[in-house]
Design brief:
9 helices, rod-shaped
């Protein structure tokens, strides 16, 4: 005689839960990615810091200050200050002997020849030469000054 088969369901074991998979510690590839990102951030920070502490950063801040003075400021004084600032920038980019004695059309021609972006200082920068010596109260368009300040910013970079 045959005996009854044991209850098959009773023989099954319950499924145990899966082990918890931690996201920490990270795999070596993630550590390399984190190190690369942090290194790039440090390098970018130090390059930006060095730029802002150099003469280029000083010139950029001065140009920004001139640009902030445009609305409601005296355009003649801004143009004179921009002209003086461009002389200082030119003497840092080139030698003093090369550019300090230039004036008028020769100065604007030199600026045009040395501008890496090819801005036409000779035709558009005429007010830099005229403004410092013009009679008081003469009006200059703010848009022309803004264009010159933007060209100077591109030249400083």
């Amino acid at each position: 005689m045959k005996t009854a088969p044991p209850d098959l369901l009773a023989q099954l074991d319950d499924i145990a839960g899966l082990d918890y998979i931690s996201w920490w510690p990270l795999a070596p590839g993630w550590w390399a990615l984190i190190a690369a990102i942090l290194s790039a951030a440090v390098v970018l920070y130090w390059r930006r810091r060095a730029y802002w502490r150099s003469w280029k950063g000083d010139a950029r801040r001065a140009l920004d200050a001139l640009e902030d003075q445009l609305p409601g400021g005296d355009a003649q004084q801004i143009a004179a200050a921009l002209s003086a600032l461009l002389r200082r920038i030119a003497m840092r980019r080139s030698s003093r002997a090369e550019c300090a004695g230039l004036e008028g059309k020769a100065w604007l021609g030199w600026l045009t020849s040395k501008d890496p972006r090819g801005f036409d200082w000779a035709s558009q920068g005429r007010l830099l030469v005229d403004a410092p010596y013009a009679p008081a109260g003469r009006e200059y368009p703010a848009q022309s000054l803004k264009r010159l300040i933007d060209a100077a910013k591109r030249w400083v970079r």
